[in-house]
Write a structure and sequence with these properties.
Layout lengths: L4 H21 L5 H13 L10 H18 L3 H6 L1 H26 L4 H11 L4 H10 L4 H31 L4 H32 L3 H21 L4 H17 L7 H32 L3 H37 L4 H16 L5 H8 L14 H19 L2 H7 L8 H28 L6 H17 L11 H25 L3 H31 L1
Amino acid sequence: MQTFPLGWFAASLLIAVVVAFLVRQRGWSMALPLLGVGAVVGYLPIGPSAPPEPELVMALILAPLVFGEGLGSSYLDLRRVQRPVLWLAIGLVIATTAVVGLVIGFTSPVPWALAFALGAILAPTDAVAVGAVARKSNLPHRLVSILEGESLVNDGTGLTVLKVATAAAVMGSLTLLGVTEVLATSVLGGLAVGLAGGWLLSRIIRWSRDTVAANALVLIAPFGLYALAEQVHGSGILAVVVAALLTAHSSASDVRLTGRVQTASVWRQVTFILQALAFFLVGMEIVGTARDLDWPEFWLACALVPICVIAMIVTRMIFVSIMVWVGRRRSNIKDVEDSAQSGRLAILLGWSGARGPVSGLAAVSLPLVVDGGAPLPYREVIIATAFGVIAVTMLLAQTMGPLARLLRVTDRNQAELIGSVDTSLAYAALQRLSQAEEQAGDEGAPIPRSVVSTLRQQYEDRIESQGRGSNAQPTAQAQLELQRSLVRAEQEELLRLRDAEGLPDAVFRPIQHALDLRLQSLREVSQMRNQGTEGG
């Protein structure tokens, strides 16, 4: 049944978040349960139906969702794995589009232009689906960085190729000049909007003293960036990703920024809600699309789904194997154990190709008619096939964890690295404490010996135990200021370890978050003490 847009949106949001909440309580991945519940709800005669304007709704969900994923990623981590990411995000997308298009074109009555359009729809992996599965599977950090980087960057490539294929399907033909123009406009437009938007957001966040207002601006930024990029015929997804990466890097690099804790908290909640709603709506759309098919089209879509999945997996496996082999030759790896490890990583990298809501958005964005006004042939078949492939690949993605354990490829215990980092931070704080003590003595206002001894003991205990530090409360305003200075010294040392020694972002971000929390706690205690003094 068709309901009023606000009504179906509110009902869909409520159901999706409740299901996601129940699933997370069990420690499960929420993607497949939400797909299943969405399909069941879409099939029932009561409750919300498939969205009346799926392209608009999915765009409004995907823009902030991909932006949130970008904020949680690391520009520096992506730069360290830029070669494999670019190979996968550009080379593999083009290869997958070509292979799927050729296979569909030869094995079905779907026109060639639409066959390649289906290939472009299914070529990009999904940042949300891949990131969630990769982290839950405890994969090595470098592999997770490659997968997340690929899924963030390849959306722009896939959607750009889709524009070319769609233009050819609508116009009947497309010249080489036309192809070049579409590609250049999409990529350059997306990059330009993303770079400008990321730079502007970074400056505003650093300049603003109002955390609430700054976070509100960041929340609405992805909508404007996406719309502006699409308005200039650029890639909206590419613009959103670039802006998010620049904003995240700029925020993480400013030790005096006070709003990181609130920003991280807000985006964790926003991302959770949007992920739940996106997967739920994809499940409903699967049912809605299937209902629009007649029986010949339905069986054709059912046949095309396994054909596309097999073609995608084989293409990815071959491409990744060649990429890893070339990388080993360039690095001149001869050690048998290293070579075997590279082979196991290649298997995992080749198997990890989940598709998600981005492909769903791309599918429903296909035009309804061609230039002559006639309906676009096989449009519903293409959409149904895309949603079927999304469901199958997300189901297959759940096997990544068992496969990683079978191949004995899991992330090494990071406790030793975290302990080493904590020790370095404690040494940096002790050095700052000595400098502060010496400076205060030179200025004729020495810090009380008891204060210095207490703080020194706290950091020396951390060095000995590699613990998290003491919970001792400050006893004076001077001690509070000194403690804040020491935490800033830890922040600066943490940034140095990241920038100069390549500390992985998976270690960097949790420690930075803990330091931000500690600094915020000291700031709040200082404010309360000042208010108490003024009141007295």
